[in-house]
Amino acid sequence: AAGTPDQITGGVFTVFNAHVDEVRNRGPVVTYGVNDMVLDNWGNVDRWTVEEKLTSYGPSGIGFVNFNIVNTLKVKAPIETFGRGARGFNVYTGTVGLAEFDRVTTHADGAVGIQISQPIGRLVVHHGVETFGGIGDSLVKGMVMKLAAIALSVKPGGSAQSIKSDGGVTTHGEAVAPLGLHGSIGMLRISGGFATT
Length: 197
Known about the structure:
This protein is mainly β. It has strands at residues 9-14, 19-25, 29-31, 36-41, 44-50, 54-56, 62-66, 69-75, 79-81, 87-91, 95-101, 104-106, 114-116, 119-125, 129-131, 135-140, 143-148, 152-154, 159-166, 169-171, 179-181, 184-191, 194-196.
C-alpha cells in the first residue's frame, strides 16, 4: 500500500540464500503497484537473461534492482518505467560483473535511469538512457528521498570498471543533469553524447 516504504513487491525475485545458475525471462514482465520491482535479486545468480520488455507503472518501482551478486545480466529488450521515483536499473548492494541493456527509459520525477551505489564490472547500453522527469520522491533502502531524474548516476561508494552507452545519455527535466558522478568510472564511452533538453 502507499505509505509503506518498508515493504516491497515484485514480478520476479530471487531471495536471500538462493543460488541460481540461470534465470531466463522469456516473456515480458510488468508491475503496477507501489514499490513494485519488476526484477529483484537478493541471491547469487550466475546468469540472468531477459528476452522481452520490462515495464513498471507504479511509484518507486525499479526495472531491475540488485542487492547481492549477479555475474552476468543481459537485458535484450527495453526497460521502461512510468511511476514517480521509478528507476530503470539500480545496484544498491552487492555487485554485477557485466550488466548489458538494450535501452533504459523513465518518465517521471525522481526516476533515475541507471543508479550505481556499489562497485560493478562492466555496464553496456546499446540504445541509450533517457529520462523525462525532474526532482521527486523515490524509495531508497526503505526511506523516501528526493532524487533528480538523472540518466546515469554513480553514487558515493559506487564505481564501474567501464561504462559504454551507444545512443547517448539524455535528460528532459528542468535542471536535471544527464550524468551524476560521485563515485568513479575506469573507462566511460558515450556515443550520441550527453544532452539536456
